[in-house]
Design goal:
FAD/NAD(P)-binding domain; D-Amino Acid Oxidase, Chain A, domain 2; 367 residues; eight-stranded mixed β-sheet; single chain; alpha/beta
Length: 367
């Protein structure tokens, strides 16, 4: 009999989601994490569960289910939800048209369209150029760098998951997982490699042209700025499929391309979230062909200033996040053996969809 029903390689949000789904079925689970704790994409992001602007269908359904699990997990593991809801602000008439069209769809039914004056009532630091906005009540935000380790500890202490820290997964084998510290015997294996898909599913990586997307992220000290929720600017409307595929988005895309070609080339759109200490997490850019650099930071700060009036704001930290992208979206999935899966989220929505994906995979493996 195998020592474990399931071994999961990777303790980021997607790996933790698979482990949780398995424990809820009463399965015996082990997690292998090469670092003392997760320190890559899962802790380098906004910690933002985003519903507004998600595409109808499987992605939106996964976000809705993952949001339910996030609420359960944050309550059980004692993880603070720092912000609820999102304020999407428009600084162009074309952006406002996108929000109006979205608000009239079934996805926008719970959202509230706001004139400029109402935006400023809720968000005193909104810049003078804001022409309106939309409030979505369903978003959640945790501090990812704290929440991911907290979930791992909770799974270990409250759910009986065995955690092997500082241990590197090497290969999926018929009856378990080979690691640099020996073999782990398990009935099923899930590997969540992040951007390292080629190491465990080289054929999949080649077929889908899997590669890295690098994101520039900043932390600002901005005295006096208090957010009403996570704030998203109108460049984001061109990146989220639920907005970008609307008829009105074409005019916004044309205007942004003419006015901000450097931002478009760098994949910049701005989301602003607030931490418990009042600092602001601001990002991001999207680089597929090179490292992020000072240009990315300058473009992000330029767009931040167009959205938020924050005199005296200063950058106190900066980092680069990495997530996998591929021709196949939103998910790469491969079965190297009948009882194993290699899973990677390729649309940057691991925090928003991971818990649902974990449940789907465990259902496939265990019925």
């Amino acid at each position: 009999m195998a020592a474990f029903d399931l071994v999961v390689a990777g303790a980021g949000i997607l790996g933790l989601a698979h482990a949780l789904a398995a424990t809820r079925r009463g399965l015996k689970v082990a997690i292998v994490e090469r670092d003392p704790h997760a320190r890559r994409s899962s802790v380098q992001n906004f910690g933002f569960v985003t519903l507004a602007g998600q595409a109808e269908g499987v992605t939106r359904s996964r976000v809705l289910r993952s949001r339910e699990v996030w609420l359960e997990v944050t309550d059980s593991a004692g993880i603070p939800v720092l912000q609820r809801g999102a304020l999407l602000v428009a600084r162009r008439a074309e952006s406002l048209a996108v929000l109006e069209e979205y608000g009239a769809t079934p996805s926008g039914a719970r959202c509230e369209l706001l004139p400029a004056a109402a935006v400023r009532q809720r968000f005193a630091a909104a810049s003078a150029g804001i022409v309106g906005g939309l409030h979505s009540p369903d978003e959640l935000r945790v501090e990812a760098r704290d929440a991911i380790p907290a979930i791992l500890r909770w799974l270990e202490e409250a759910k009986g998951v065995t955690v092997h820290r500082g241990r590197t997964a090497l290969a999926i084998e018929a009856n378990g997982l080979a690691t640099d510290a020996g073999f782990i015997d398990a009935g099923a294996v899930v590997v969540v490699p992040g951007s390292n898909v080629a190491a465990f599913a080289p054929g999949l990586a080649t077929r889908t042209r899997a590669h890295d997307c690098r994101l520039q992220m900043l932390r600002l000290r901005a005295p006096g700025v208090e957010l009403p929720g996570v704030v998203m600017g109108d460049l984001s409307f061109l990146r989220y499929e639920g907005f970008a595929t609307l008829r009105s988005a074409a005019a916004l895309r044309e205007r942004v391309a003419a006015e901000q070609p450097r931002h478009v080339a760098a994949g910049v759109h701005v989301i602003v979230a607030q931490s418990a200490d009042g600092s602001l997490v601001v990002g991001d850019s999207h680089r597929y062909d090179r490292e992020c650099d000072s240009e990315d930071e300058a473009l992000i700060l330029d767009e931040f200033a167009a959205l938020v009036h924050a005199p005296g704001a200063e950058v106190v930290d900066r980092w680069t996040g990495i997530y996998p992208v591929a021709d196949a979206k939103p998910l790469l999935a491969e079965s190297p053996t009948p009882r194993s899966r290699v899973i990677a989220v390729t649309n940057g929505l691991g925090m928003s969809t991971g818990f649902a994906i974990g449940e789907e995979t465990i259902a496939e493996l265990f019925g």
